[in-house]
Structure formats: structure tokens, C-alpha cells
Amino acid sequence: MLKKIIVARHHGFCMGVERAIEIAEDTAAKRGGQNKVTILNEIVHNEAVVEKFRRQGVGQALSVDDVADGILIISAHGISPDVVESAERKGLEVVDATCPLVSRIYRIISKAMARGLYIIHYGDPHHDETAGIVGHAADRISVAASYEELLALPDWSDRQLGLTVQTTAHAMEFEEVEKLAKRKWPHIEVFNTICNATTRRQEAIIELAPQVDMILVVGSQTSANSKRLARISDDACGRGELIGSAEDIRDDWFTVDSTIESIGVSAGASTPQFLVDDVIERLVRISDGQAEVIRLVPEKRKEELDSTAG
Ligand code: SF4
Fold this sequence. Notes:
Largest sheet: 5 strands, parallel
Structural class: alpha/beta
Strand content: 15-25%
Shape: flat
Bound molecules: iron/sulfur cluster
């Protein structure tokens, strides 16, 4: 019988996602009447958020080639400068909702390249954020998505090297990446560009894991950080599930002989709070109203904002 539901100290929307949504909503509300407003790629990786904008008449495009006119909003994940240039050449007005912590990576890379460094970026080559970062580094960057890919890179003992990382990477995994990189290239400079929102959400899972029998992470299958939180939950708690919404909660998890008495709830940085609240409500209903809901109090967000420096 489910007796306890504990909500992670840090979960759901981060500063960069809230900011991007506000910029897009504001643009659509104030300028949408006279202009066609289009978001390039998904404003954030969550179907509910994307659908909300679609219902408001805001378009979505995968390429500048598909946008004829009007205002083009750049998503929280950022974009390559040549995409912005081609949009402006077409006469589109570009509104930039790139997260300041992604822009910070662009600045770090520019400064490092100005000092002659070649960049190795640890991240998913298919992610929008990586495409934007690669676009800011021209031909002075290589992307590695795994330990194996990192170790397979050339010797490069004659090159000055810098290592950066995707904002939403697994913080503990990156400690290993850093060690491997330093073993292979003792002279490499490491710039840990994982954002504080990511670290805090991952630490909150580690805090939650020993207190519960299972952790549900609410988030989209397209959200890298949500998938990572589910994987960390599985490793730390022994049972972690990524669910898109309350509808994905399975009745067979809570049969009469179920050993799940306590459950943790978290959510990716692109997951709106209403989806988390729906999950908590459904869990309370499953417990016939008996489960106690404990919401761990978040610490202030000051550090998330502080890391915009640099
Ligand atoms: S996860 Fe981090 S980098 Fe990405 S939008 Fe949120 S605060 Fe910005």
C-alpha cells in the first residue's frame, strides 16, 4: 500500500526554460497580431509546452528554409550563428530566447579559441544545443558522445586543448570524463559547463533515492535531461521510470502484493508543474487518499543565476 509520496527538492522548470517560454509568450501576445511568429525547433523539449504554443497560433519550423516571413524565435537550446545570419538575410526578425547558460558556453569557447585552444565538447551530437555550440566554434571543435569516442580521438599532444560539456550532462559521469581526458591529454583545460539547474536536479534525486522504493521522473522522451534523471533514479534507487504524464502510471505497479510503499516524484527542467501535480494527484487517488505528500523545500535559485557570469 502506497503510504508516502516525496517530491524532489529541485525538479521541473529551470530558469532558462521559464525565460524562453516568457519571451515566446510575450512576443506572441504583443506582436503576434501583425506578424507571423515561428519558433525554430521546439522552444523546450516538452510536448505539452509545444502544443500550448501551437494552439495559440505560434508556428514551429525545423529549418529557416521553412519560414517565409515574420518573427523567428530561437529556442532555449540556442543556435549556430550562421542560422541567425541566414534568417536575417531572408528579412526575418530574430528574437533570441537562448538560455544565458548556453550563451555562456559560446563565450567560454570564443575566449578559449582566441587563446589558440582546440575544443573537445562532450555531448550528444544530435542535440540542438550541440549544433549551436559546434556552429560557434567553426572547425576548431570535435564532439565526443561517450568515453569510447573521447579515447578514440587523436593523440593531439602538439595542440592546446579545452574540454567543454553539454549543460545537461550527468555530473558524476563527467567527473570520469574529466579524469580520462586528463590522463590522455595532461595539458587539457577543463571548463565544466554543466549548468547548476542540472546539477541540483541530479543531486535532488540522489537525496531522494534512499527514502523511497521507486522514483517517477515526469518528462518527455525527447528531453535529454529528463531521460538522464530517470537513469540516475534507476541507478540510485533501483527503480526509476520516465513518464510523460499521470496517464503513464501503471496500475500493475500498485497491486495488493506490491512492495512499493513510498514513491519519489521528480521532473525534467522542461516539464511544466501542472504535469507534476497531475502525477501527485493520481498517486494520492491510487492510495485511496491515504498517502502523505511531502514536498522537500527547494533552496533559492541564486546560484543558477550566478553562473551566468563568465
Ligand atoms: S537546463 Fe540549464 S542550460 Fe538548459 S535551459 Fe535550463 S538552466 Fe539553461
